[in-house]
Amino acid sequence: MSSLIIEAVKKNLDISQNVPLKISVYEAFKKTIVLGDIPAGQRINEKEFSDVLNISRTPIRFALKELEKEKLVDHLPRIGVVVKGISRKDAVEIFEIRKSLDTLATIQAMEKMTDEDFHEMDLLLQRGEEDSRHDRIDEVLQNFTDFNAFIYQKSQMVRLAAIVTQLQAYLLYFRDISIRSSKRRQIALDEHRLIYRGMKNKNIEQITLITHEHLDRSLIFILSEMERRQID
């Protein structure tokens, strides 16, 4: 196995977080696979990773089982664990689903939100805009997560939120890359503000249009990044 692949996982392994080692290992493998740094078809040898990373095989085995559930790796008889990864076709499918689900959640939230809720949403947007002006990138990324979570919470559609959370997990790393670009970050913040205005004005047509444009722009960036990384 290429030492470059193991080094890529090691680079993404953050053991400083206050989480169990198995979760840190899982996140490191997932990020490395999704970003294409472990190419599709590559076999993962538990022992080799264990030796080089100087950790037991137990957290590695846990990580690979979780990734198998998420269809990012396959466990093949007499071969072992082989990376499937995520393709550009997968990304397009995920965003098509998200267009429908995000639009539905936003409209449902709009119908249920109170004046106090809209005020809270406005403050959330203001914080994101302020963080962006001062290049507090990690805070902006958290603000994007909070904005989406706020809408899904106010939609009161628990099952829908769970589905979208699972879908977002695949492409979260690409989103982080795009938001670290100041140009894309500002456009996305402006789009969030337009979604807020559409919700406040109860303009379903505007909500649908902006939500779709917002996700289309994100998808275009992700596809170009996947192409640059030579992910099929």
UniProtKB/TrEMBL annotation:
SUPFAM superfamilies: GntR ligand-binding domain-like, Winged helix' DNA-binding domain
Gene3D superfamilies assigned: GntR ligand-binding domain-like, Winged helix-like DNA-binding domain superfamily/Winged helix DNA-binding domain
Superkingdom of this protein's organism: Bacteria
Cell cycle listed as a keyword: no
Keywords: DNA-binding, Transcription, Transcription regulation
The HTH gntR-type domain, residue ranges: 19-86
Protein name: GntR family transcriptional regulator
The organism of origin for this protein: Granulicatella seriolae
Organism placement in taxonomy: Bacteria, Bacillati, Bacillota, Bacilli, Lactobacillales
